[in-house]
User: What shape does this take?
Amino acid sequence: MKPAILALADGTLFEGTAFGAEGECVGEVVFNTAMTGYQEVLTDPSYKGQIVCMTYPLIGNYGINPEDIESRRPFVEGFIVKEGSPYPSNWRKSQTLEAYLKEWGIVGIQGIDTRALTKHIRDQGAMEGVISTVDLSPMRLVAKARSSPGLIGRDLVKDVTCAEAFQWRQGDWQLGHGYLDDRFPTTARLSSTLRLRPEGSSPKSDAREGGEVQLDLFGHRSSVIGTRHRVMAIDCGIKYNILRELVSTGCNVVVVPASTSADEILAFNPDGIIISNGPGDPEGVPYLVETTAQLIGRIPIFGICLGHQILGLALGGRTYKLKFGHHGANHPVKELHTGRVEITTQNHGFAVDIDSIPGGEAELTHVNLNDGTVEGMRHTRLPLFSVQYHPEASPGPHDSRHLFHRFVALMKQERGTQEPLEIPGVERSRVRQRGDIAV
Amino acid sequence: MPKRTDIQKILIIGSGPIIIGQGCEFDYSGTQACKVLRQEGFQIVLVNSNPATIMTDPEMAHRTYVEPLTPEILERVIERERPDALLPTLGGQTGLNLAVVLAESRILDKYQVELIGATLETIKKAEDRDLFRQAMARIGLEVPESGYAKSTAEAETIIERVGFPAIIRPSFTLGGTGGSIAYNRKEFHEHVQWGLNTSPTHQVLIEASVIGWKEFELEVMRDRKDNVVIVCSIENFDPMGIHTGDSITVAPVQTLTDKEYQIMRDAAIAIIREIGVETGGSNIQFAVDPADGRLVVIEMNPRVSRSSALASKATGFPIAKIAALLSVGYTLDEIKNDITQSTPASFEPTLDYCVVKMPRFAFEKFPGTNETLTTQMKSVGEVMAIGRTFKEALQKAIRSLEIDIHGLESRFLTHGSRFTDKDGEAWREAVRERLRVPNWERLFYIAEAFLLKIDVQEIYALTQIDPWFLENIREIVELEEDLRNDRSKTLLRLLSPQKLRRAKAMGFSDRRLAQLTGSDELTIRDLRRKLGIQTTFKMVDTCAAEFEAFTPYLYSTYERECEANPTTRKKVVILGSGPNRIGQGIEFDYCCVHAAFALKELGYEAIMVNCNPETVSTDYDTSDRLYFEPLTLEDVLNIIDREQPDGVIVQFGGQTPLKLAVPLQRVGVPIWGTSSESIDRAEDRKRFRQLLMQLGLNQAPSGTVISVNEAARIAKQVGYPVLVRPSYVLGGRAMEIVYDEASLLEYMERAVQASPEHPILIDKFLEDAVEMDVDAIADGGRVVIGGIMEHIEEAGIHSGDSACSLPPRSVPPKILDEIREQTTALALELQVVGLINIQFAIKNSTVYVLEVNPRASRTIPFVSKATGVPLAKLATKVITGMTLEQLGFTQEPRMNHVAVKEAVLPFVKFPGVDAILGPEMKSTGEVMGIDRDFGRAFAKSQISANGTLPLHGTVFLSVRDPDKPHLSPLGQAFAELGFHILATDGTARCLQEAGITAERVYKVTDGVRPHIVDRMQSGEIVVVVNTPEGRTSRLDSYSIRRTAVTQGIPCFTTMAAAHAAVQGIRALRAEGLQVKTLQEYNDGGPGVDRAS
Assistant: This one.
């Protein structure tokens, strides 16, 4: 067992053994309290810039399952567990967690008192840290942790957003079936100036053929245009399950890079826009705030997590950093309108100060029952709402899936009695079906 | 939605006596409910027949009825109390079933009592297999195929659909008894036939078996606003096919991906909604096919259950308390999480540790029964252990069981194996056989299999235990092998600091490390301390440290940071009683809980140590600090090192802490109360005899022997019959009465191995003596008797299995005074500080001392309930240094009523075992009947224990020759009461000679039908009196007693009990049952005031 050290910026050290790739990583150390779903956590792009400590001590028990990914690769900077299991057991598993971490070059540490670390972060706040298996000098490691840039004001979105637009066709995962696709054959007519890559299609449909097909912008046949809502997802580090939920709710989904301009988005006349989750500080992505400000009021918008914070800023409000954030799958959130409590998945280090939004037009809709922070809001006049937590779960409870239906209802309402819009005539491009999702 | 204001008075039904499958977890849940609802300002009416519960303490409810749990009695109570609501979900299956009867018979409507927590419709939907299956189909969930059959022909059609293996469950048998698995047609026919015969409704459920699948449980809570949370997920180590109560279980789930877990969670939420549990908790069981993740729903309990008690302890989320609050209108978000004090109860606890529950069995008490684990629960208790890893928790659980196994010890090696060659196929084959058939030792055979290099795949194929669990065991075994190898090395070389730390973190006990390295426990302990490897304690906080916790609920582990943070208060550690077992049950937990309450009252910090998840003592609310830990010397010392308490109390938890008294005192731990020296004087036979001689008290002639020859000599000397038993045992383990030398030698051969380390005690058996039990408190200067009980059964029946009457009913005052004097003399001589229990036998007006226990006895809660004097609390205060005078307890309580304790026996769960009483204790629980005279009180105790005491019908009498002289008054009495008498040949003749009409009936051995068993099975006989003779002739009457057990016919196996029954029947015939609260019996409230 190779030794490894976790050094925190305040000088606290934890000695353990290497788990995963060898090397060194730097990031903000946070803890996640979910007891299942480490693979979804690893691949959640919102963890870019962060080293994640799982509070549940036995991690890796069910190995790595190729279907259980939330993005194209793991994004955590480093991984901390009490005991990583070298002998996973599950009917779907394809490899061990450690092998996976090695494959992706993720540096990790195990065998440390993760509860002591968690308490330390809880009391002192999230802080920068370094895990190293190559340099075991505490002094140097602490210095490295101290000189790490941190999250404040940084644009981490650019590191995780997609390089080019792509179309999403994969729906919910079902036991015995795997991922369902949107059940529409891939014959299409129109496309856009954006090059589309159908990413995340189910292996089944991928296996169908390697040939090239034409798709329209939203991947549906012309005959069904109008029965499905066309959603454009601004990818700030979007979790696949947001996209899957949208597909399952009857949306045709196109994902665009976070840098896509408002004009480009409006050019395609989508029925609705999702501003996704993503890593870091919302103030680090002013261009996205700008884009959002231009979209507000023109098209229904649903903001999730970072997207919610971006909306807060775009509406003229402020955001602030939480002491150690919310990262887990058991946070109670109350919807004020119904009084119902949902158990939610959360992963954020920043929050919206709703009172700072001028005009009093942002209505608080959801509140965190643990600490009273803002969990959701809507605009009293304009078609937009947002939540701080993750209605797409994965990992975590499905209590809030209905928000996707609410989004669809909002789109319907906004579209009113209008007939389906013409898809703008744009130049055709030929796109290739891609093979397996990178794991 | 805040508290409902339209209800003021709530009726809560308890679960009655402790039986297998329904343990003290329902005292825990009921107590929580009573406490919190009382705090909320509701009037609480409680009915429970079990006096050994905390819930029946007079302070817990406003009106406490210790009465039989029958619909008639419940109606009396309802009529008298007129409650607004009935909360049926906290009293186990007993409480739920009673609520159903009360609702269906419209008694609840008649008195306008609302069912809260679960409606009748909900209960039926969950409990009725057909309705449940339909409900599951509506929400798209699968259940195993099943069908009800009333005949073999019907069964045939069902099995076509269901397929093999199939589970056959007779409907409405007592305690769900008689479930079996059929793997083929032949077995199917047999089991169905047997099941149809066993079932009172002649109906069996035939269900497709998912044997070998993975088993999971979720604990779900729902409130009036339809908020639902999953409190805890549990994964069974043992696969489907073994009752979850008999399975090793683990929390949280270990081998489900989030996707699979969420499917299960969604299913659980859909189920609780569809079944319609509006408020409260439910337990839902699932089976998952390990090959493809397919999920089926096994069952749902729309109430708190054994698993919810476990889940509460495993997570720190008090399910029963919150269920009670939800039932009166609160919603989850309105209830605060006790532990964090800032966050609401509407969340899902998250764990940062692993919990292992392990069942404790008592097969040694029931020789001849099939020890294979099946769908019918057979364990009598359980332990829970918490560790940072599964390995640590597993090993802590093993040593918590107190079965003298300290780690994954090889069974064949410890049993003095006939195998020597580890590579030999014979040894492997023997192990394989024990892996194939589920048995309680299987965990150890798995370890042994690894030792023999049988690989994981093969063990999995044999056991269907998930490879993840198996691999963890393999890791433990590998480290063991590493430690075992090369004993030539010095201990320090063998146990490098790194390796020792690793072993401790993996849960190895010092004792096991000593075994493996050829050292001893204290040497390992010293080495460990020298190397700075100290135990750390972590908190169970519901939230994985995300929020600060305020409830010191702790477990030990080997980590970097210790969170124990001991206070500087005056503090006392109470050592609990560990897992429930026959001979040491809820009574001792009751005493420990009272000790905690008393210490808190006096301003001490009460620190509880225990590992039994079913109990009130392990509720974090009971004491100031709770250590959920094994009760071994090592684990207790670790806590004491950390806490540095002012005192440790060992006298309330039964034998478990008592065993630790001497070793603890030896290392300088301050034991409070009676000294370990006095304890030893009472426990050591030789010293005890000297003590009695010194005081001039009588003892039956006796001797201690260490060889077979010596045994025969001593037995001849004291004269047969003799009582033989190993020394230092609890509950009369392996104790027998033998009538001649041949039987003695047979006993020595069969039951014990006499040796200098294991001496055997031989006492002259006092035939036909009356046995008495006395509980008293002494403060070093004064001795006050709490109660004198007269046993119904004669001496020779274990006191734990004997019914008894308080006050005594037939012993003359002169003898009672003598008993009082002797009690006082013994307590003073032993310098008892706290409780003392003495057993006496009276023969020919001579008082003999049988045994002295300077500690809490099994009867303390019974005496306390009967007299209203909280003996355990008073004793605790005495232990802290107060005098009885200061406490105002200076006189033996006087009673104007009679209380009868009756034992409840588990024979129905152990097919093949004779339902006979003897010197070895077999009962799992007890009930109390209380009324104004003995007859009525005894009648109530019988109804509580057996469910009925028939007032007319046919009685069957068959008594052994020595009892025949006493037969005629009994026969006369039954005849006068109008009973039709059936009797076997000899008994009938004897009755006829006395002029009593009796119909002669064939014995089974007569070979003519219908014989007695046929007539019992036809439902013709309502009472059986059968007193069996020595070992051989017992076999003849065995089938009679067995049939009585399976048919639920009251069966009296002693003349004394039969006579008492007649008195009871007579009393009931004269006037029906009346009910009265404990508060009324002991007016003036809990005891002390009255006594002083």
